[in-house]
Design brief:
The chain is of the alpha+beta class and 268 residues long. Helix content is 41%, strand content 14%. The chain has 2 domains: 6-99, DNA Primase, Chain A; 123-266, DNA primase, catalytic core, N-terminal domain (DNA primase DNAg catalytic core, N-terminal domain, Alpha-Beta Complex).
């Protein structure tokens, strides 16, 4: 595997404002002298201990974590990625910085992470795999865990029993690009099931995911509560399309569940 050029890493580390990345994660920052301070999302922080320094483009937790770094390290910590995958994600979001000097970045077509969905899996298994992937993602996502805590949904057994999950774009990194045959087939299947939009983005992106199962453990549907910073004030529920047909379940049963959840959402 080719080594990432030091110049490329430096452009990403210095060219992406750390305060924007941290704020975009949902951390409220307040200026204190030359620094910005906020609650650290990586531990139970009651007194602001996260220090962000725009001048050096670095962050550091002065509290329990005692960790820090630049933009890449922040993405590694918040997304649960290794160094290479964090760089690749930043390159996708900031292609001009990754290229430098006007050169075009040649984007790879292989998946950045191992896919949880097998190419030969049927629709039912694919849905179970996606739910399992979202469930594991939630356990590594401080913002999702903070939301559950705010709703008093913190018991590990409950989270595991109902397979609560979180969608944060990480699933897309596990899929081959659509210009590959395997990527086109997998993305097409997930789109027909309602996991992906026509644009290729995850339908539930930025949402805590609540899957619904039948008595046999098949996935009937997924409901998502948006918790991303730009939409945190909206009380909305996303519903994946196509899941009922995939599981062969009667639409009448789905309608009752949908009405129940819609009513609960409107009363909050």
């Amino acid at each position: 595997m080719a080594r990432i050029p030091d110049e490329e890493i430096q452009r990403l580390q210095s060219g992406i404002p750390i305060e924007r990345v941290v704020s975009g994660f949902g951390v409220e920052l307040k200026r204190v002298g030359a620094n910005l301070m906020g609650l650290c999302p990586f531990h139970d922080d009651r007194t602001p201990s996260l220090v962000v320094t725009p001048e050096t483009n670095l962050w550091h937790c002065m509290g329990k974590c005692n960790e820090g770094g630049g933009v890449i390290e922040w993405v590694m910590k918040t997304k649960g990625l290794n160094f290479r995958h964090a760089v690749e994600l930043l390159k996708i979001d900031h292609p001009s910085l990754a290229a430098g000097d006007g050169h075009v970045v040649r984007r790879g077509t292989r998946a950045l992470l191992e896919s949880p969905v097998a190419l030969d899996a049927d629709d039912r298994q694919s849905l179970r795999d996606v739910v399992g992937f979202y469930h594991e993602t939630l356990k590594e996502s401080p913002e999702a865990l903070r939301y559950l805590e705010s709703r008093s949904l913190t018991h590990p057994e409950m989270i595991d029993r109902f397979q609560l999950g979180f969608a944060n774009r990480k699933l897309g990194l596990t899929l081959p690009e659509k210009n590959r045959q395997a990527g086109a087939e997998m993305r097409g299947r997930l789109q027909s099931l309602g996991i992906l939009r026509e644009s290729g983005h995850e339908h539930m992106n930025g949402s805590v995911v609540f899957p619904i199962f039948d008595l046999e453990g098949n996935v009937l549907g997924m409901y998502g509560r948006k918790i991303t910073p730009l939409r945190s004030t909206r009380r909305c529920i996303c519903t994946c399309r196509g899941l009922i047909a995939a599981c062969g379940t009667k639409r009448r049963s789905s309608h009752r569940r949908k009405s129940f959840y819609a009513n609960r959402s409107s009363t909050r």
